[in-house]
Amino acid sequence: MGANLLGVRSHNTALVLDLLRCAGPDGISRLELAERTGLTPQAVSKITARLREEGFAAEAGRRASTGGKPRTVLRLVPEAGHAVGVHLDRDELRVVLADLDGGVVGERCVPLDLGAGAEAVVGAVVRETEGVVADALGGPGGRAASRLGVGGPGGRAAALLGVGVALPGPLDHVHGVLHRVTGFPEWDGFPLRDALARRLGTPVVVDKDTNAAALALAVGGERGSFAYLHLGTGLGAGLVIGGSVHRGARTGAGEFGHQVVQLDGPPCPCGNRGCVEALCLAAIARGDMAEAARVLGVAAANLVGLLDIDLLLLGGRTIEAAPDAFVEGVAGILAVHAEREGAPVERVPVRLAPGGARGVAEGAAQLLLAPVFGRAGG
Question: pTM here?
Fold first, then answer.
């Protein structure tokens, strides 16, 4: 609910913006905005007047009223602001530019070696980020306006909210500092957020790839508590508990790939033996997708038993290459576990996550977009 206090104007604006976004092109009236937020009609009028002046809201027509003159309906102007989403993978760099509605209006994807060194990797991110912004907006790359309310349509440059970067963990998302990325220990302690912010001249947020993807799924409409399992060059999980992304006190939640399921198993680059990630990737390397799905299913069953979540979503390039094998394989293992434990008939469903190859990059853009609508946690 809203609060009619000057000190929380940004909170109230976020409530209004979120309702405008959810209403879509059909729009919503000021009276409906007041009813749904709990704000006074006067407060809503001030907020919407400012949003219209800045270009972030516009009239969407008029709607018949039950009494009196027809109501003016307002809509969000998606092209008024944008955010860049960067998926920094071990061997690939994908950059998208998303509008306020989350729609992708520009994209680039190039090969990348995460082990090439900080200078080369940061340089590639800067180059592709500035390129995708210039391609889509015709502006000077990362030098565009850097906060909502500065610039907008109607002859003004569209606001660039900032750049979200998602990559494998572990890392500290609060300070944007990397830890010992599995297979690339040289990144330990590198301040990626600050390095990119200096080069780009715009706000930068850094988070784990799985957290970013989970955020995008929550913002996109997935409800309740669910886990997003990402199998690509590595294996991790994004957790949404009670509608919010669960990162943990040290951004350590979701290190799913490094749970040990075979004490005397093969060595993993993390230093342990018998990690789920190592077993999965080894099965994939020899072309045994059924075994990879079985291992993933065993680990997923552990996660479901631990957290009692409502849904499992699978994504990542390896899963996208053989979606049926993984969805059916993981679901089969969960069914066996449910029957063994006498679980209710309604088992935890397993689905392929929407978003495809750019799901993580879109989630990285949501690291900037979601807070604008009061949805920072999902």
Answer: 0.90
